[in-house]
Design a protein that fits this description.
It comes from Kitasatospora terrestris. Keywords: Membrane, Transmembrane, Transmembrane helix. This is Alkaline shock response membrane anchor protein AmaP. Helix content is about 45%, strand content about 15%. The chain is built from six helices and five strands; from the N terminus they run H-H-H-H-E-E-H-E-E-H-E. Strands 3-4-5 form a three-stranded mixed β-sheet. The protein has a two-stranded antiparallel ribbon with strand order 1-2.
């Protein structure tokens, strides 16, 4: 599991636990379950019966007359919104290193290769395979754990199994030989070029 995925799942799990516990406490107070089941509510928890409120009127209006109150509230909400937006946008963005190290298994011969240059070379090598009409390649992941993503357009009648076999034995094998990477993850999307429409008289 990737580090970012672990962090996301941990934060979501903690947030879910907090929301679940808070919701249960609110429900128990709203349905008067503490009295019905003879339970002691948590110390300091304000919602213990249906008539209680989370924040009394005095607490809600305590600072509203202060000059700093509304700017502070608006600033805090704006900051939370921006942080949530940044987090949301980061989920759909795959990290794409600009430069990668090739020949890492032989440190004295290791070189730095531009990400796009290597991806273009893989795409060109793949496009020469039989049964492939177009090929596009991207390298994502991290410098230490790169991932190859391919979008392949097959010619009409091409066999996907044969194309994938040729891809594995050809461009992917060449990539591993050139870079020294050991079985990098490969994600391939295949689609077929539609047959041209035929007109009959």
């Amino acid at each position: 599991m990737k580090r970012r995925s672990r962090i996301n799942r941990t934060l979501l799990a903690l947030l879910g636990v907090v929301v679940l516990i808070g919701g249960l406490l609110v429900v128990m107070g709203g349905l008067d379950l503490y009295r019905r089941w003879n339970l002691d509510p948590p110390e300091g928890w304000p919602l213990t019966s249906p008539g209680d409120v989370l924040l009394p009127a005095a607490d809600r209006t305590r600072y509203t007359a202060e000059d700093w109150w509304w700017p502070a509230v608006i600033g805090a909400l704006t900051l939370l919104t921006l942080l949530a937006l940044v987090w949301l946008l980061s989920q759909g963005r795959r990290h794409q290193p600009r430069k990668l190290t090739a020949g890492a298994s032989r440190p004295h011969r290791a070189i730095q290769i531009r990400n796009q240059t290597l991806a273009d070379a893989v795409a060109a090598d793949t496009a020469r395979l039989p049964g492939i009409d177009q090929a596009r390649a991207r390298i994502t992941g991290t410098v230490k754990h790169p991932e190859l993503r391919l979008r392949l357009t097959l010619t009409p009648g091409a066999e996907p199994a044969a194309v994938l076999s040729a891809l594995h034995d050809g461009p992917l094998a060449n990539l591993q030989t050139a870079t020294g990477w050991q079985d990098p993850p490969v994600h391939a999307r295949l689609k077929v070029t539609p047959h041209p429409a035929r007109h009959t008289d």
